[in-house]
Amino acid sequence: MTIDSTLAAGVKVPGTKLAREATEFIRDTTSELVFHHSRRVYFFGSLQGRNRDLSFDPELLYVGALFHDTGLSEQFHTSGHRFEVDSADAARDFLRGRDVPEDSVRRVWTAIALHTTPGIPEHMEPEVALVTAGVEYDVLGIGYGAVSDADRAEIVALHPRPDFKRQILRAFTDGIRAKPQTTFGNVKADVLEHFVPDFVRGDFVQTILESPWKE
């Protein structure tokens, strides 16, 4: 059985040509860490969608999950953009190259761009909400008990997470170390503050007080 046709925890990876090509693309261009994490995000996001009784497009959720961390790759280290935007742009290029309708492209782009911005995706289209839900489940353990032990074990057996906490933090650090300015106002500032000794966190209050306005 090929990995792109796998069923786990009652969730099936879409068997479409687009999904197969996305799987091949991500396997060829990202690390094993990112590939396995991204697949888990799809499975956990799908289960969260089932728990929330959301109707979503599995193909779009799959592409959003697979591409959400591509912006951590070395080719984007000096882009000057937030890694989420680089990831979203990579997915957009992939989808447009395959003539996917623009509304679908927009949903995937938005899902990826907002996946580290808590409190907003959950109020948007299901695919947007569920990419974030899958990421939050796999990285932060949010809603951990909402997935059964058996389903969780089945997904992790398919896509293991050895030393995942430390490995993903290292991937975050390596992916954004060269563009610290992109962490202003977002969660990745925490990563650099922990792991990059000379990092100085941007201060929103100081930015206001030191703006060129007199008052």
Describe the structure.
By secondary structure, this protein is mostly helical. It starts with 6 loop residues before the first strand and ends in a 6-residue tail after the last helix. Strands 1-2 form a two-stranded antiparallel ribbon. Strand 1 and strand 2 form a beta hairpin. It is 56% helix and 2% strand. The longest helix has 20 residues.
How would you concisely characterize the structure shown here?
The protein is 56% helix and 2% strand. With 215 residues, it is mainly α.
Secondary structure: elements and pairs:
Elements (H helix, E strand, L loop, with lengths): L6 E2 L2 E2 L4 H13 L2 H20 L6 H10 L15 H14 L5 H12 L12 H15 L8 H10 L5 H13 L11 H8 L8 H6 L6
Antiparallel strand pairs: 1-2
Helix pairs in contact: 1-3, 2-3, 2-6, 3-5, 3-6, 4-5, 5-6, 8-9
Which short descriptors sum up this protein?
single chain; 215 residues; mainly alpha; two-stranded antiparallel ribbon; 2% strand; globular
